[in-house]
Amino acid sequence: MARKGKDLKGREKAAIFLIALGPELAAQVYKNLDDSMIEMLTIEIASIRRVEPELKTEVLKEAQEILMAREYISQGGVEYARALLEEALGPDRAQEVLRRVTASLQVRPFDFVRHSDPQQLLGFIQGEHPQVIALILSYLEPEQAAQVLSGLSPSVQAEVARRIAKMDRIAPDVLREVERVLERKLSTVAGQDFTLAGGVDSIVEIINRVDRGTEKNIMEGLEERDPELAEEIKKRLFVFEDILSLDDRSLQRALREVDMKDLALALKGASEELRQKFFKNMSHRAAEMLREDMEYMGPVRVRDVEEAQQKVVNVVRALEEAGEIIISRGGEEELIV
């Protein structure tokens, strides 16, 4: 009895698809796969002796439908894709294809919002409760969320930032209700009991992209309301590897305040590029002494290296807060020196 496409596993369909493409196109696909995936598909292809024409056609048709759904989603979101797919494939088949694609793409809620202009979105949500604003911003791209956060009133900025950082898991029915109220467009989260949203990492990415005035206002507000959270965010806003973005003058200023023992330990876990950044901003003698200290230090614990790196970062952050150096940020205007 001939096998049907629905009876095949994903890797079997992928193997048949590659066979149908032919060796030249299949080789191009292989270039974009990791070694484990290539190994799995190669074994699968090697095990296939013959593909019935009907099965090949079925697999190619399914691949076309999935690619079409992905394209529609990227153009206008899930609801836009649903409308076009229903017209092309019928409601049942469209729903099946969308379910598979949204699960694989992990399409997040508020998809329709991410296609909005930040200024329009600001006017759309600025009258909402801070928790609702936090929920929406946590699903946006950091650049878009940063622009919206910067446009909120000072009294709301820190509260929204705090709520994003404190957010953990949101039940799908809550998400759908908020979406229904704000806009009659739903982005379903297929097959998940809960959806991750927000968190400290999320708000750090956003704050890293806002202007300094907004950042200062947020951090001052957080220090009053939640000092522990403020300290955790502050530690993540500028990490040791970010020193690569410092201009030479700022780094030289920071080096005057850094303990060389801490620096030697910190550089043990640094990239060669970052090490060279430090060495070129020191005198030849100081750089040689630092290299010797690192060499004689021998093996060190990762925890000790991270603590030393944080000490160096604290020096940089303190100098920035004092206005003595500038930490360049993405999205800000260029500096004139």
Report the portion of residues in β strands: under 5%
- Indicate the structural class: mainly alpha
* Number of β-strand runs: 2
The sequence of SSEs as H and E is HHHHHHHHHHEHEHHHHHHHH
Distance between the termini: 76 Å
Strand order of the main beta sheet, please? 1-2
Which shape, going by the Cα principal axes? flat
Residue windows where pLDDT falls under 50 for at least 5 positions: 184-197
Q: State the share of residues found in helices, binned by percent.
A: 55-70%
Q: Largest sheet, if any? A: 2 strands, antiparallel
- The overall pLDDT, averaged over residues, is 77
Radius of gyration: 26 Å
What's the number of helices?
Answer: 19
Overall description:
By secondary structure, this protein is an all-alpha fold. The protein has 19 helices and two strands. The longest helix has 24 residues. The protein is flat. About 4% of the residues have low confidence.
